[in-house]
Amino acid sequence: MLNQYPLWKYIMIAVIIAIGAIYAAPNLYGTDPALQIAVKNNKVITASTRQQVIAALDGAKIPYRKVVLDDRGLLVRFSGVDEQLNARDKLKEILGQDYTIAQNLAPAAPAWFEGINARPMYLGLDLRGGLHFLIDVDMGSVIKSNQERFHDEIRQLMRKINVRTQLPKKLGDGIAFEMSYTSEQDRDKAVSAMRREFPNFLFSSKTDGGNYIVTLSMQETAVLELKKLAVQQNITTLRARVNELGVAEPVIQQQGERRIVVQLPGIQDSALAKRILSATATLEFRLADPDRRGALAASTGQIPPGYRLYKMRNGSPVLLKDRVIITGDRITHANSGFDPDSGSPMVKVQLDGIGAKSMLITTKNNVKKPMAVVFIESKSDVKIVDGKEKVTPYRVEEVINVATIQGIFSNSFQITGLDSPKEAQTLALLLRAGALSAPIRIVEERTIGPSAGKDNIKQGMRSVTVGMALVIAFMVFWYRGFGLVANAALLANLVLIVAVLSMLQATLTLPGIAGIILTVGMAVDANVLIFERIREELRIGNTPQSSINAGYEKALSTIADANITTFIAALVLYMFGTGPIRGFAITLSIGIVTSMFTAIMGTRAIVNLFVGGRRIKTLSI
Fold first, then answer.
1. Looking at the structure, do residues 425 and 487 belong to the same domain, yes or no?
2. 403 with 484, same domain?
3. 150, 221, 404, 575: which has the highest count of C-beta atoms within 10 A?
4. Is the pTM of this model over 0.70?
5. Taking the CA atoms of the chain, what radius of gyration do you get in angstroms?
6. What is the 8-class DSSP label of residue 247?
7. Is 315 helix (H, G, I), strand (E, B) or coil?
8. Looking at the DSSP assignment, which residues form a beta bridge with residue 390?
9. 99 and 187: one domain?
């Protein structure tokens, strides 16, 4: 019999739509402003911490809805953003640096939704408010730092193989060097060793009088790989710093060859975010001159061999040894606090295995001798020259403190000599997050306030509502009863789109809403093709049942072709687009798949259910 589905197919369609409705439902309840509190170093929050938080909020008279302790930490719900921000500042003061406090939006849906992992979609920066930064990575510094590194490695290799040569001469702004040897045997021996140690370099030789000259330059592919690695390392470091800031659902991704996009939803303190993101602070630990000849060296200009001249924060000169004991990349953890003896701000540091071993050997051999901590920060000077922006990177190096080694230590010690508790907190944060592999510069900054985000949500919802209303009205007017069937499928399609986005925990943005609106218009295209085909079959004299069957069967290939080509376009947008474009592509792709299901199987099921297998003379189409 024409136009009949088996029972299992009706059940399958009903189950899919029911599941979609359940997983889309949490979005109807909205979200509560909340704070997610967790302990650093993956420790577990206890019930006593919950009581401490409740007491702090009650003492500050900050209203809250609920304080829940679960596996992920402590979740504090509020009725408004103002209460959330006030509570954040108060709890940071009470709990200290051992806790991360992230602003969040907690689902307001009943708890049983959480039990089946049904959660609302995340809201993007343009809907929630926050900060957007476009960051440029200084590739000149990447090349320069690697040039210095390979220069030292080549020099050490020549010493290791016992070949006499002049210092490697740097060529140009790239990673290239020139070496000069006095004999052909030394040249061949050196080139053979360098080929083994530096396989990514190209070598060429020439003779100039009695000198045998070798030129080596890094391959272009290897240089590009170094630049790519620098960007990836910076992304990792920025992500660690953002985690230290306590930002929920941040977006940190590469854009182009040398730029990074950072989006911080819910954050409004632009100055703090820029200071933390762009800082490139690290530390060096060096032994200091035990004879304290810094002032003499500064006045005479005569620096003893093996030493370098630095300045303390108060401007006084100090001599430090060339050899670095450890650098900041050996620091695994850092916490700020106060020195119990002097009461001054300090940072307690923990080292990894290699750093601990180096520090142990140094302190064991230099008890009662001074050791200095050098604070190093990379900055950029931006000037406009001949209408073009010229960026000149430079380093600021200053000695934080010089302290006498009182005993032997290895993996744990403290740094004093800091100006304020705030400086200690910032230094501890940067040391925990790690140093950037290359200096960065913020080239674009946008701030979206929470009120603007709410307006965007309202406008987006209004667009969807108006678009759906117009489509529904047109379909009912033009196709009558069959238009109602198409509208039911359209509503089911919207529910399924929201459900899939929620199950994927996708981030909804304004371009995503645009994709949904476009899908609303496209979702009825298939039904328009089917219904027009049914009308043609009726006009040539076929029976209603035959016309319905022919309409669905003959229009299927056209519908498939149209949707496949659109899906390919969406796939290309996702592959080559970034950020907002990808959000548009995702919602459009999901909408294409769900509309194929609802417009073909869904409407056919409704039509079969009401008119299939019956003797009818006319159709409401």
1. no
2. no
3. 150
4. no
5. 33
6. B
7. coil
8. 383
9. no
Tokens of 615: 């003797």
Count of domains forming the chain:
4
Count Cβ atoms within 10 A of the Cβ of residue 394 and give its class: 0-12 exposed, 13-18 middle, 19 or more buried: exposed
Cβ(310)–Cβ(287) below 8 Å: no
438-483 pLDDT per residue, tens: 778 888 888 776 666 677 778 878 888 888 888 889 988 988 889 8
The answer to whether residues 373 and 487 belong to one domain is no
Tell how far CA 229 is from the center of its chain.
Answer: 16
Bridging pattern class, strands 73-77 and 412-415: unpaired
CB 136 within 8 A of CB 440: yes
Longest dimension (CA), the chain: 112
Contact 450, 121 (CB under 8 A): no
470/587 same-domain check: yes
Q: How far apart are CA 62 and CA 341, in angstroms?
A: 36
Residue 503 lies in a domain: yes
Does residue 249 form part of some domain? Answer: no
Looking at the fold, whether 297 and 363 belong to one and the same domain comes out as yes
Q: The domain spanning residue 82 has which CATH number?
A: 3.30.70.260
Residues 481 and 561 in one domain: yes
Token couple for 450: 């929470």
- The number of C-alpha atoms within 13 Å of 214 and in the hemisphere containing its C-beta is 26
- Residue 518 is predicted with a pLDDT of 84
Q: Under a CB-based contact definition with an 8 Å cutoff, are residues 372 and 287 in contact?
A: yes
17 CA to centre of own chain: 34
Query: Which residue segment(s) compose the domain that 218 sits in?
Result: 140-223
Continuous H helices in 60-183: 81-95, 111-115, 125-128, 139-160
Give me the CATH number covering residue 173: 3.30.1360
Residue 620 belongs to a domain? no
pLDDT digits (tens, 9 = 90+) for 324-378: 888 877 777 778 888 877 778 888 888 888 888 888 988 888 888 888 888 877 6
In 96-124, which positions are buried (b, 16+ CB within 10 angstroms) versus exposed (e)?
ebebbbbbbbbbebeeebeeeebbbbbbb
In this structure, are residues 139 and 440 in contact, taking their beta carbons and an 8 Å threshold?
no
What is the edge-to-edge ordering of all strands in the sheet holding 169-170?
169-170, 176-181, 211-218, 201-208
Residues 573-585: tens digit of each pLDDT: 888 876 678 888 8
Residue 394 sits in the same domain as residue 511: no
Return the number of other C-beta atoms located less than 10 Å from residue 165's C-beta.
Answer: 18
* Residue pointed to by tokens 């850092």: 334
Determine the 3-state secondary structure of 588 from DSSP: helix
